[in-house]
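Note to self: the last two entries modelled the partners one at a time, which told us nothing about the interface. This time every component goes in together.
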Amino acid sequence: MKKTGKMIFIGLVLAFLYLPILVLAVYSFTKSTNIGAIRGFSMHNYVTLFSTPELVNMITGTIALALGASALATILGTVGAIGSFYSKKRTATMLNTLNQIPVVNADVVTGFSICILLVVVLGISKDTFIPLVAGHVTLCAPFVFLSVIPKLKQMDSSIYEAALDLGATPFTALTRVVIPQIMPGIVSGFALSVTLSLDDYFVATYTKPATFDTISTYVVNATKGAQTNIKTALWALSTVIFVCVVLLVLIMNIRSHRAERRGS
Amino acid sequence: MENTKNIIELKHITKTYEDGFTAVSDFNLEVKQGEFITFLGPSGCGKTTTLRMIAGFDIPSGGEILLNGKSITELPPNKRPINTVFQRYALFPHMNIFDNIAFGLKQKNTPKSKIVKKVKKALELVDLEGFENRSVSTLSGGQQQRVAIARAVVNEPQILLLDEPLGALDLKMRKEMQLELKAMHRELGITFIYVTHDQEEALTMSDKIVVMSEGKMQQIGTPEDIYNEPINAFVADFIGESNIFNGIVTGKLKARFCGGEFVCVDDMKEGTHITAVVRPEDVQIVAPENGTIRGTVTSVIFKGMHYEITIESGKNEIVAQSVNVAKVGQRVGITVEPDNIHLMITEDHTNFFKVEINKNKELEYNDNVLDVSLTDIIKGSYFDEDGDLVDSNGIEIDTRKIRVTAAIQPRDIRMTDEQEEGLVQGYISNLIYEGDHYSYVIHTDLEHDFVVDDEYLWNMDDQVGLIMPVDKMKFTVKR
Amino acid sequence: MHRRTFSRKTLGIPYAIFLLLFVAMPLLVLVYYAFTNGQGEFTVMNLVGFFTNPNTLGTLFYSFGVAIVTTVVCLLLAYPTAYILAISKWKSKTVILLLFVMPMWINFSLRITALKEILTFIEGNLAYHPFLNTVIGMTYDFLPFMILPIYTTISRLDGSLLEAARDLGAGEMQAFLRVTLPLSVPGIISGVSMVFLPAMTNYVVLDMLYNSTYIMGSLIGSYFSAYNWHGGSMIALVLLAIICLFTLLGGGQEDENARGGSLL
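The predicted structure of the combined assembly is written out below.
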């Protein structure tokens, strides 16, 4: 009896989170332009989504930006974390504090301040993509830093010295011994960067070229416009992304289950 | 096979960290080709730091390290023909056993076929044939240890450094590995420098032992030398069980300590302050009337081969080993054969005395409460809300299980005629003029001798009180 | 003689430069712009303007209102959810938890679009209930960020503490109120800090739900659209001050859940 009560509560919260997405997914396969009466099955939203150059460019642009910025952020954040970890305490504290600023700061402030510095003060044109990429790297790198540091702390500190002792140069010791040890942290830092970049609206909106759109900036603008075919095509996009996320979670789960079984 | 060539020399090596802490000071050492040398000392004595400087992980702040006569003081570790077996093995977890052992050879661009052969031979040496493809996590502690040794020796280093390599193993495994390492040393002919805090391990394995304390070398010698002729109280206390007493030479081949006058073999000038060391196995328990001193048995513990018997005589505690059992509470006499008493001249006359902890967790001496809190002498400790003493990790300290020793310099003690003002009372049993002051020995009512410096002349056998300011005392805690 | 071509410490340098350039510098420029006018002269007019303009002050209070209500609603939904999940012994616990995390990986603008369609269907015209819709929208967006830290904190509680409380005669309710609740405060604090600040600044949610009122973030947006860098900088600076205040109040605790938690 009590358990059912708990399950109903959990179910309701989940319904609140998922109902809109699921309802939209259903309607994305219809000719309807509003939620209400369903008017006939159709794939036209998906056709529009993948055949309108504007939409395709926006999607590929967002993905390219996310991967590129995340790659840069991962390199910077990882190198920074290693540097900070082996630095003297004062340097490390300074790096950690600075690193914490974008993490706690509101994205609006981060985006706006980078825009002021790069675009207004230094006069770098937004069309060069430099402000946008710099903004996204600034958004993501601190999180890479934060996911690598714990791995460095967990690592047996003497394995680096062991490598040197066996004749490896400091650089070889780093690439052959330290980096493989902290790989899980680097990978999760990269994954986190990708999701942050994909989900970002504020940094992009203050730093992007006028002709370029990420999914977020595009969707926000589209909801203000009245183009119904674009609007319903975005329903299809939401469904596609939802399915991708579900698939990704499934794959990850299966893999970790296998790893567990192999471990035991 | 006598080889007199020095493979490595440490000259006036000093290591001071940025925070001002000096880990090693003016350390000098010569190691001969093929020797098995052990750095022995308690944690924090500088032995690991010295090893790290030889390996190249730390750069000395002063002094020079010579390898085969050439300075390697600032040479990075990867350029030194020296390899290390680390305390927790430091195997690379992402590589299999073969890749771990081959790592050093690959850095030297050794041809693949040669690597395979050498790795195989190294695995044979440590009795792990066929382990090439196993992963590190599937090995037991002992096996990982062997891989760590194989990984180091496969490079044929001129010196093998071993940093407490057996510390993480259980007792039985440790004993086994000690013998194997010794055999390996003979087989390989490489110079071994071994670091440990385990005196038994050091005595079993080494050709030579370097005893270290507080960053300084205390004594260097063969295990026999170190055990039989400890140079000072620290070495005597650290190597094996010892009874250590402060005393004074009272005549030809006679010394007074532990409340009795003993015949000994060291000829020293009368009045010399000495430290006497008596090994427990040399303490003889006899009938009370036949003993040089008398006491009461306070504890008897069966140790397998013998009984460990603790006897209280006055305020002194004597530990004896005997094959005969004794009864707690029994009155006994104690004698020691003259050549089993090791006398050392005490250059510093620091007075050491045992301090009690009373019910209120205050420090007490001679029934006087000392004005110092336990929290001041145990770093990081504090009293929790229940009044229990807890250490910096929040773990309760059982005050019944700790022993506090106070140390005070002779010049910090003042004698007074108002006996009750003193922390303890006694009579002057000896005095010598030392040029600008007199050095007195006060034999207290607690049967303990204190050395006191005073510029004025007092008379022999005067009854005095000893005023000892608490802020001049240094406390050490043993658990 | 002491010459090493490569040192681990030097790895910190590129990241330090990056942080100084893209984190510290933008904030300094922000301060400079906030206290100068268009002619580059020092002025406190922007600051005075902020506190004398009834519009900005009204926005500040409205933002606090939105943020407080959103945080409370999120907490009321998230705490029971996290608590039920954390103490339950359901087999599917990890899957359910994953369901609460997954929305974070779907682009927020698409999820808000979905919510908007549902709300439009229910309410007809979204403009009738601007405040209610804003709170619903933000709760929908931020709820996972509140659930996760609370769940982590409760599930890490030592189970024997509860047993000890019961053993000492506490009822189930008593044990909860006097043991679980106080010990889950760190999770609540980190959850609140991850909801409250975004709720003050994430004005896109309002925009997308046709709410014509302003919150703090919107002010930056409108100054940005009007190219008024000085006014915008002052708003950003005020926001930054509020964020600093909150971070300090939160005890500066290691916030391992901060967004990073979204990957589990």
